[in-house]
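ok so for the tutorial part 2 we go from a plain amino acid sequence to predicted structure tokens. step 1 is just haveing the sequence, like this:
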Amino acid sequence: MKRWQAALLSFILVLFLGGAFLFFLVPFGGALIIGFPPVFDRITAYAICPDAADYSFRDYGFGQPTTSRPSGGTGHYTELTCTYKDGSQKTFPNEELALKGIGASFGAAGICGGITVAPNEGEAMDCRKLPASRSWRSRFSISARSSGSLVHA
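step 2 — the prediction. this is what the tokens look like for a chain of 153 residues:
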């Protein structure tokens, strides 16, 4: 096997394994972040108003039905109020919080997964720096006298 073939094969293998890991990590990591309200609120606030000096959440409307069926579930609304350095405030409604918060959670899980999967440049394996030893070609040689079978040298 030539060097470029080995590099291509290893690239495909890392891509396959890393892609499978990311395919698992992003949905479950994003859901895990959404499941922790303090982490979810902080990521959502940073995604919506990153340059705010302070933020606060206000929950209201608890117990309101979410469907028209009498046996349907109930929910509540949340507002985010961001306070900026100049004293101005901006309020964001529930719909914007939900969509941007979920997107930011899955994005954070994707970034963490990408950092985990991507090889570190300083620790990447360099075959040229391996200790000098006999290669597999020198250990086994094809001998014409042995009709092409591998003979240990």
